[in-house]
Design goal:
Strand content: under 5%
Distance between the termini: 39 Å
Radius of gyration: 18 Å
Oligomer: single chain
Order of helices and strands: HH
Number of helices: 2
Mean pLDDT: 94
Largest sheet: none
Low-confidence stretches: none
Shape: rod-shaped
Length: 61
């Protein structure tokens, strides 16, 4: 939820036009992509890896 609100808050920064917007656009896009990737890793990859490790431990025992 926090990541989503931050991503939505960065959209105007990433889409802004005007003087000095080159720096702010890059910053906004970087923050948006970083939060999106970290959210996907947290919600999908970490539970998947945990499940794989847990399954292998059960087979060893």
């Amino acid at each position: 939820m926090t990541s989503l609100s931050t991503i939505l808050g960065m959209v105007p920064l990433a889409l802004s036009r005007g003087e000095g917007s080159e720096v702010w656009n890059t910053l906004g896009i970087t923050v948006i992509c970083g939060l999106a990737v970290s959210s996907l890793v947290t919600l999908i990859l970490i539970p998947l890896l945990y499940s794989i490790v847990h399954h292998r431990e059960r087979n060893v025992q």
